[in-house]
Amino acid sequence: MQFSKSTGYALHTLIHLAQAERGRYVGIKELASKQGLPESYLSKIMSKLRQDGIVRAVTGASGGYELARPGSEITFYDVISVVEGRQQMYECHAANEHQHELFAEADASGCECLVKKVMDGAERQMLDYLKQHTIQGVLDAASFSCSPEHRA
Amino acid sequence: MQFSKSTGYALHTLIHLAQAERGRYVGIKELASKQGLPESYLSKIMSKLRQDGIVRAVTGASGGYELARPGSEITFYDVISVVEGRQQMYECHAANEHQHELFAEADASGCECLVKKVMDGAERQMLDYLKQHTIQGVLDAASFSCSPEHRA
DNA sequence: CCTATTATAGACATAAGATATCCATAATAA
DNA sequence: TTATTATGGATATCTTATGTCTATAATAGG
Ligand code: SF4
Ligand code: SF4
Residue A43: which nucleotide is closest by CA–C1'? Predict the structure, then answer.
């Protein structure tokens, strides 16, 4: 159970865009080479981010990408839910219904599976945390004294 | 990013064992058929659970499995960390170090990556929640009025 | 209008991991 | 001694992630 590499790519790309001067479009070439990964692959990820309204894209000469809204309004959750998809982390694969005879419980609107309730609850804890952290937040907390060239 | 089916298999199996009368060994045949899955596959999962001290196994006629400790002391975290492995959910795959010039921050013992800090923090939220929920906890919360045969 | 540049989208290829099967062996109860 | 049961390795299959390639559309600038 791991985040895909694509998630890391997306996060780093958005951080890069957040650092770019406002109004400038950053091309896929620059974004990909900075991370040392294939342009064609990253462009697919960017396409998803665009379709989800996280970045804007402009085709043509001197085109490229820019953030669609301030980095302070782009949460880790936003990014991850686009790249990883929105399926839940735990799915019930029960073929027959024999096995869960005892695992459901009364709730306001009826019965629910207690196994899934725990698993979904765990997922929610993680997602809530991710919603509280933004791209800009990471940049703001960065300390110059820790950049590689400054550390001997 | 999803939990593997194996995790579901393991959880259901342990719940089954927790319901079995104490001192009785439950065979792989019963455990597998209840969930409608291949014995050979489930036995590999059980083998991992045994190596991790979550269940005990007895070879030979009338052998099988039993919980190694009370269900109230087996957390969802225990199970998931065995089945899914213990690698962290986010790994940095940076080939060069050029890309993280600004993302580290001073901390008590030095510098750390702020991206990873957020991702690890999110994972921790989830794991802490899973540590607070046990196999027995699910059984205790189950309500008879919700079992299938009782619901019309 | 023409050309170079750049994003887009689909098809395709490859690698990795999850899921499943098979078989030979060891351990135990009866 | 025999039937039963778990164990572990090897292998096969299926799915998903990752990466590549190519054709197309859109735009800036000359
Ligand atoms: S108990 Fe819950 S997770 Fe298990 S089979 Fe029933 S519905 Fe699915
Ligand atoms: S910023 Fe963090 S996650 Fe990104 S490349 Fe540097 S160490 Fe890895």
Answer: C7
Is A11 in Cβ contact with B115 (below 8 Å)? yes
The CA–C1' separation of A39 and C15, in angstroms, is 19
What's the predicted TM-score (pTM) here? 0.91
Q: pLDDT digits over A24-72, tens only? A: 999 999 999 999 999 999 999 999 999 999 999 999 999 999 999 999 9
pLDDT digits (tens, 9 = 90+) for B81-130: 999 999 999 999 875 655 666 666 656 667 788 999 999 999 999 999 99
- What are the C-alpha distances in Å from A20 to residues A23, A25, A68, B104? 9, 8, 13, 19
User: Do B21 and B142 form a contact (C-beta atoms < 8 A)?
Assistant: no
- Interface membership of B94 toward A (CB under 8 Å): yes
Determine the topology of domain B5-151 in CATH: Arc Repressor Mutant, subunit A (1.10.10)
Distance from C-alpha of A55 to C-alpha of A78, rounded to nearest angstrom: 12
Instruction: Name the residue ranges covered by the structural domains of chain B.
Output: 5-151
